[in-house]
Design brief:
Layout lengths: L3 H7 L27 H6 L2 H16 L8 H20 L5 H21 L8 H13 L2 H21 L5 H81 L8 H26 L5 H9 L6 E6 L8 H22 L3 E9 L2 E8 L11 H12 L3 E6 L5 E8 L6
Parallel strand pairs: 1-2
Antiparallel strand pairs: 2-3, 3-5, 4-5
Length: about 400
């Protein structure tokens, strides 16, 4: 069983990221994952509401556009809103589609400004667009894209005959820069918080293994003390009582017979306690693995451990922990998986670890630094690992580890 402190920490509600990205934990009672769909959570966060209110305000200003152009203007504005919502609900690993939607948003905003070139509200769409760029793209790339859009905006305003096009564009660029920097630093704060949660989960999992290791060491020490000290003295006492019972003067004494019987029973009880202490050794690997996966919104960890699996070696438990940690990271980052299945069974003197997910590996697959490090860990333990693509397109990991081996 896990320690009381560990169970208390696992019940702590992990902090939730406010906006700009999918939150890393939820407020449900379960250690992992929330009830609301992650896409809907992104769609109703504060930034989405702010953008929606701004969109409505821009829509109200379209009444000033002449009737022949009004349907086209409304079509552009609605298309911009749909692209914005799609960006909010799309997973981050869909890089190409996100980039296409961002470019489409910029084009729609500039087209609406061209349709209504007088300084009004249409240019505010570029402010929303700049904030989205800063959330998704690197800051330097986002600034270059905003600069290019502002150059086009300047040309549109100048061709419309406005007296001070540079002033108009500069004022709007200031709002774009402010919104973009706010989104950028909010994004960085979220990433730092998410990383902190992952580090905290790593510490919880490692602490679980250390606590179990210390508990097993203490149990083994107590068992040895009982066997070597108390067992030895009780054996000597039993032998002396047996010798005393053979004396004619004490052979018929009831007290001697009873003392001899009690010492024999006590010696047997101590041997039973020592055997139980040795049999109950083993690290609570399941709790450590669930603590490791707790702060990740996806993928969900589905763990299956056979009843005869027992890990006594802390180094072996640490190896399994790091393998599953790398698999969780790869499934979330590269495959977009929702569930990670981990199976740990015993086969003779070896542990069989099987990991697969419901995601899909995109592009040409080849082992990176993470999988190479995983292979090195397993081979250092005298084990073997095989990486393969499942029929559904997900990555499947099959590893065998000697149950009683030590790292080379």
């Amino acid at each position: 069983m896990p320690s009381v402190a560990l169970r208390r920490n696992l019940r702590i509600v992990l902090p939730k990221v406010t906006f700009c990205a999918t939150c890393i934990a939820s407020t449900r009672r379960q250690p992992q994952h929330g009830g609301m769909n992650e896409r809907w959570r992104a769609a109703v966060d504060p930034m989405s509401w702010a953008a929606l209110i701004t969109w409505v305000a821009i829509g109200l200003s379209l009444r000033l556009i002449t009737p022949p152009n009004a349907p086209l203007a409304w079509g552009l504005l609605i298309a911009f809103l749909l692209a914005f919502i799609a960006l909010r609900v799309l997973p981050e690993h869909r890089v190409r589609l996100c980039t296409a939607l961002l470019l489409l948003e910029g084009l729609l905003a500039l087209t609406l400004i061209w349709l209504y070139p007088r300084p009004g509200t249409a240019q505010i769409l570029l402010v929303i667009w700049a904030a989205q760029l800063a959330m998704i793209w690197p800051l330097r790339t986002a600034l270059l894209a905003v600069l290019a859009a502002d150059l086009v905006y300047y040309c549109i305003v100048r061709e419309s005959g406005h007296g001070t096009p540079m002033l108009v564009v500069t004022v709007n660029a200031g709002f774009q820069l402010f919104a973009g920097l706010c989104a950028h630093y909010a994004r960085r704060a979220e990433q730092a918080r998410d990383q902190l949660l992952l580090v905290n989960a790593d510490l919880l999992a490692t602490r679980a293994l250390l606590a179990d290791s210390a508990r097993d060491s203490e149990r083994l020490r107590v068992a040895r003390e009982l066997h070597d000290v108390a067992g030895h003295k009780l054996t000597a006492l039993t032998l002396n009582l047996r010798a005393l019972a053979q004396e004619p003067a004490f052979a018929q004494r009831h007290e001697v017979v009873l003392a001899q019987q009690l010492s024999s029973e006590l010696l047997g009880d101590i041997r039973g306690v020592v055997d139980a202490l040795r049999r109950e050794r083993g690290l609570d690997l399941a709790t450590a693995l669930r603590a490791l996966a707790a702060p990740m919104p996806k993928p969900v960890l589905q763990l299956r451990m056979a009843g005869d699996v027992r890990v006594d070696d802390p180094a072996l438990a640490e190896t399994i922990l790091r393998i599953v940690q790398e698999a969780l990271t790869n499934a979330a980052r590269h495959a977009g998986a929702n569930t990670l299945h981990v199976s740990l069974t015993r086969n003779a003197d070896a542990l069989q670890l099987t990991i697969d997910d419901d995601g899909r590996v995109r592009g040409a697959w080849q082992p990176g630094n993470g999988l190479t490090g995983m292979r090195e860990r397993i081979e250092a333990y005298g084990g073997a690992v095989h990486f393969m693509l499942a029929p559904a397109g997900s990555l499947r990991i099959e590893a065998q580890l000697p149950a009683g081996a030590s790292p080379a």
